[in-house]
Amino acid sequence: MHIGQMPAGTHDVFVALGLAVAGLVFAAEVRRRGRGDERLWYLVAGVLVGGALFGRLGTWLQHLDPRQNATLAEQWAYGNRSILSGLAGAYLGVLVAKRLCGYRARSGDLFAPAIAAGMAVGRIGCLLTERPGTPTGAGWGVTVDGVPRHPSFAYEIAFHLLALAVLILARDRITQPDALFTGYLTGYAVFRFAVEFVRGNEVVAAGLTRPQLFLLACAPLLAWRLVILARRHRAARTQGVPV
């Protein structure tokens, strides 16, 4: 794929488009909610830096023996990229940015629609350039080397588009801070764990892939976030605050 006279990889083009779309959706949501604090853009910088670092380096430690892993320089230049570790890095990047700039308000619901929109666009690049999933007899399979396979990235695009629609419809009805963001993260974690079974990634332990093991490792943190959200919900109801 080419843009003008400059060659560009199809995957990278759609990743860039996804980031651009996410930025536009975020800006629109900030304006719609009347959140004019300029420090929000420090949070965006945290998302980009944290997401880039963890997305590129998050798959570095694949073997218990350090000698079997690539060097950090090799991983950065040639290693696999990971959406899941990128999301984790983006989340940590926001936390660091908040601490540095002194921003204390909750911001997850500002990011949720932007992430869903950006992921839907970015995954088009994966759909067009990466190997699809496991063999399937379904009529919608993508044939590669004569074998129909699950279009796993198409499933993910559909999930994020559906999530975006739900987030837009629910954003004025659910007023508890970060409820939309937490719901989106939970939904994506469950979906991604399930779709891994037809994704075709390497099974490494207990019949599970590395992304599934990563999700299991992160499950306690997500459960903790759900507990905190439930407590806030109960406290708000006790005080008679609409939620």
Secondary structure elements and pairings:
Blueprint: E1 2-3, E2 6-7, H1 10-33, H2 40-57, H3 72-78, H4 83-101, H5 108-129, E3 142-144, E4 147-149, H6 152-170, H7 179-195, E5 203-205, E6 208-209, H8 210-238
Antiparallel strand pairs: 1-2, 3-4, 5-6
**Spatial separation of the terminal alpha carbons:** 48 Å
Structural class: mainly alpha
Strand content: 5-15%
User: How many strands in all?
Assistant: 6
Spatial sequence of strands, sheet with the most strands: 1-2
- Helical content (DSSP H or I, runs of 4+): 55-70%
How would a crystallographer describe the biggest sheet?
Answer: 2 strands, antiparallel
- Rg value: 19 Å
Order of helices and strands: EEHHHHHEEHHEEH
Q: What is the subunit organization of this protein? A: single chain
Give start-end ranges of low-pLDDT stretches. 1-7
Helix run count: 8
Rounded mean pLDDT score: 85
Coarse morphology: globular
What would a concise description of this structure say?
By secondary structure, the chain is mainly α.
Would you kindly provide a written description of the structure presented here, covering whatever features stand out?
The structure is a single chain. With 243 residues, this protein is mainly alpha-helical. The chain is built from eight helices and six strands. It has helices at residues 10-33, 40-57, 72-78, 83-101, 108-129, 152-170, 179-195, 210-238, and strands spanning 2-3, 6-7, 142-144, 147-149, 203-205, 208-209. The strands form three sheets. It has a two-stranded antiparallel ribbon. The protein has a two-stranded antiparallel sheet with strand order 3-4. Strand 1 (2-3) and strand 2 (6-7) form a beta hairpin. The longest helix is centred in the C-terminal third of the chain and has 29 residues, at 210-238. It is globular, with a radius of gyration of 19 Å. The termini are far apart. Mean pLDDT is 85; it is low at 1-7.
